[in-house]
Structures are given as structure tokens and as C-alpha cells.
Amino acid sequence: MRTYRILFVLASLVACAIAPGAAGAAGPSTASHVRPPKTAVTKLTATPSTLPADGGSVMLAATATDAEQGPRPTVYGDSAYGSGPFLEHLAGAGLDSRCKNQPPTAAGGLLAKDAFQVDLQAETVTCPNNVTAAIRRGAKGEGVAYFGQACAKCPLRAQCTTARDGRSVTVGVHEQRLTDARAAQQDPDWQADYRATRPKVERKLGHLMHRKHGGRRARMRGKTKIDADFNLLAAAHNLARLTVLGIRSTTGGWATATA
């Protein structure tokens, strides 16, 4: 059964979060782009969730700022959006990132990749025991540093690897981008901004999923119908939000209700 991802933009300052869709026929997973605190959905599109969200998310975020003269937009996202390719998409679109990146891990509690020093200028990796290995690059730019025989008598071997041929460290094409992102998210200002924004995004997702419109299960089949159906849902929530805020159209433009 095909599932769909619903992407939408709220106002102008871009933020991003993702919530998993429910299982079942055409059940959407939802990503949102939002400007806190008071916003209306200005763009919405449906894409098959089997395709990467990266391109669609950046396209939607970029078009949301076409007519903007404000500060550089920022994309907020959980670790599902913390991949190297997505960060490259953001940089290429001129968007700042507040997408979480998971720290490197190793099975069995062994030393993780961040215990090694990766020098992309020298194309080397240095292990915690100060042994340096060259990075061997593949045809697509990906690389691996093999420590091989240096691990045989290493005093840290038991903490580092159980592999018969010794430890190896993979160096991805987007290694520098991921390293910079992990360093940036250690900044207290970065963390405070992320914590202040994500709850607003989740609240908006909750609003859209609350009513018996179909919620996390699409009511239609096919991209065109699902796209139109969720645009209808977004329009309904826009009108409800305008009513709550007391915003109305007058001959002189939009105005808010006065006490």
C-alpha cells in the first residue's frame, strides 16, 4: 500500500519537523514548515513517502521565501532531517539549519567514530591510540580508513573493535557538513532556539490531525486527490484560526477585532 508525505508551509519564517504516519492505505507522514507563533498554511503538497523528503522540503521552504525581505529563513527538524544530503540541500538553498544530528554510535558500547580525529585536509583518520591511517576514496567520493595490523597489539583494541582485521572508519561524502552541524548543535543558543520552536510545530500538527477529516489516514487514493484533500483541510484550519484571532477583511484591508 502506498503512503504519502504531506509538506506544508506556514507564513514566512521556515521551521521543519516530522511525525510518522499511521500504517494503512495511503497513510501520510507529515512535515511542516512554520513561523511561530501565529500562522496560516500558505503552501501544501503531497509526495510519495517512498521518495526522499529532502528535495521537496527545500523546494517548499525556498518558495515560501520568494517574496520575503526578512531575515535568513531557518529549517527546524528532528534527526530524520539530519542527514548529510539534506544539510547540503539546505545550504544550497540558502537556508540555515536547526536539524538535529544523532551522535555517532558503535555496537556493543565500543569507541564511536567521534573518538577518532578525521582530517579532511590531509585525508587521514587518527585513532585514540594516535595511529594514523589514510582515507581511501571510492568512485563516488565515499572513503574508508583501515587500521588493520595496527590494531593487533593496541592496548585499546578491546574497547575499539572485535573485527578480526582491525578497526575501520567510514568517511562520508558529506562528512564536513555533518561535523559542522554536530558542533553547532552544542551551542546553548542553538539548543534554546530549537526547544522554543519545535513544540509550536508539533502543536500545529496536532491541530491538523485532531478532527475526523481522516487524520493520519488519507481519505483518497492517488497523489492528485490526496494533495487536493489536504489543501482543503489546511484551508478549513486557516478559516478557523482567523475566526479565533478575530481577523476580518475590511475595505481598508485586514483588521483584528477590538475589545
Structural class: alpha+beta
Shape: elongated
CATH topology of the largest domain: Nucleotidyltransferase, domain 5
What is the CATH class of the largest domain? Alpha Beta
Domains counted in the coordinates: how many?
A: 2
- Beta percentage is 15-25%
Q: What keywords describe this structure?
A:
259 residues, alpha+beta, Nucleotidyltransferase, domain 5, five-stranded antiparallel beta sheet, four-stranded mixed beta sheet, 6 helices, 23% strand
Descriptive report:
With 259 residues, the chain is α+β, with helices and mostly antiparallel strands. The protein folds into 2 domains: 4-101 and 185-256, Nucleotidyltransferase, domain 5 (2-Layer Sandwich), CATH 3.30.420; 107-172, no CATH class. The chain has 6 helices and 13 strands. It has helices at residues 53-63, 84-92, 157-160, 175-184, 188-210, 223-245, and strands at 4-10, 17-19, 29-33, 41-48, 74-77, 96-99, 117-119, 124-126, 132-137, 143-146, 168-171, 247-250, 253-256. The strands form 4 sheets. Strands 7-8-9-10-11 form a 5-stranded antiparallel sheet, with no helix packed on it. A hairpin with a 4-residue loop joins β7 and β8. It is elongated. The relative contact order is 0.15. Mean pLDDT is 75; it is low at 12-37 and 62-69.
Summarize the structure.
It is built from 6 helices and 13 strands. With 259 residues, the chain is an alpha+beta fold. Helix 1 (53-63) packs parallel to helix 2 (84-92).
